[in-house]
């Protein structure tokens, strides 16, 4: 009997069904697939068996394989059938799929518990997709605005105190506000603005209070709360 393993979790844990039959085993070997073979000692057959568990062998003798006892072979190693078990939960693999890692054998459940990437927010396994923020993994559906819970995957966002916010919420909560229109100045996406003393304007809102011409890149004069261009300031003095 053979166990064929393809991609493991995160391209490692999509497990193929166990298959049986000598021809299938032969094909798997020819294709260099991962194969575990369950067989039985045949009378008269010379055996060089040694259970991979050594002193921890569940049969008590790592070199003993009596007639009728099944053995499991995987690559260059051998086990008694009941010794071929998950290194974490100790449950025999039997005909179930398994994942080898650094000389250890894991059942699919224990491998997932031990090695799978988990979302920093919900702590559940990320099986596909996901996003990374501050070097931490998130499900796309868990990566949301701290204030409104809108999904931020693929959206513009910024952060404050290490927490992500959508552009709209960040502007409403934390951004400077334009003195002319009172809307937030976020700076996200290259938005330009002008500051003077303790006041701020969007570029498009920075214009003369009298003639309404833009004052961006030009001199201006303050008239109480208004800003006016030099020409209009002269007209007011006449």
From TrEMBL:
Q: What is the lineage of its organism?
A: Eukaryota, Metazoa, Ecdysozoa, Arthropoda, Hexapoda
Q: Does the keyword Zinc-finger apply?
A: yes
Which CDD domains does its entry note? LIM5_LIMPETin (cd09430), LIM6_LIMPETin (cd09432)
Domain annotation LIM zinc-binding: ranges: 55-116, 117-176, 177-238
Enumerate the UniProt keywords alphabetically.
LIM domain, Metal-binding, Repeat, Zinc, Zinc-finger
GO terms of molecular function: zinc ion binding
User: Which named protein is this?
Assistant: LIM zinc-binding domain-containing protein
Asked if the record carries the keyword Repeat, the reply is yes
Q: InterPro entries annotated for this entry?
A: Znf_LIM (IPR001781)
């Amino acid at each position: 009997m053979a166990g064929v393993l393809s991609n493991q979790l995160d391209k490692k844990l999509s497990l193929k069904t166990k298959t049986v039959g000598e021809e299938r085993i032969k094909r798997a070997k020819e294709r260099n697939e991962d194969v575990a073979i369950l067989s039985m000692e045949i009378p008269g057959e010379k055996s060089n068996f040694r259970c991979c568990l050594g002193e921890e062998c569940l049969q008590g003798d790592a070199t003993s394989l009596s007639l009728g006892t099944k053995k499991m072979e995987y690559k260059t190693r051998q086990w008694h059938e009941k010794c071929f078990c998950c290194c974490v939960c100790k449950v025999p693999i039997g005909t179930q799929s398994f994942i080898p890692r650094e000389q250890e054998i894991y059942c699919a459940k224990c491998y997932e518990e031990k090695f799978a990437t988990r979302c920093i927010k919900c702590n559940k396994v990320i099986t596909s997709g996901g996003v990374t923020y501050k070097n931490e993994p998130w499900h796309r559906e868990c990566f949301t605005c701290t204030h409104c819970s809108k999904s931020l995957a693929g959206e513009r966002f910024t952060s404050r105190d290490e927490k992500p916010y959508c552009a709209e919420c960040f502007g409403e909560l934390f951004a400077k506000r334009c003195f002319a229109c009172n809307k937030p100045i976020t700076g996200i996406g290259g938005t330009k603005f002008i500051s003077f003393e303790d006041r701020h304007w969007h570029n498009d809102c920075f214009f003369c209070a009298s003639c309404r011409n833009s004052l961006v890149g030009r001199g201006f004069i303050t008239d109480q709360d208004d800003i006016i261009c030099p020409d209009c300031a002269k007209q007011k003095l006449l």
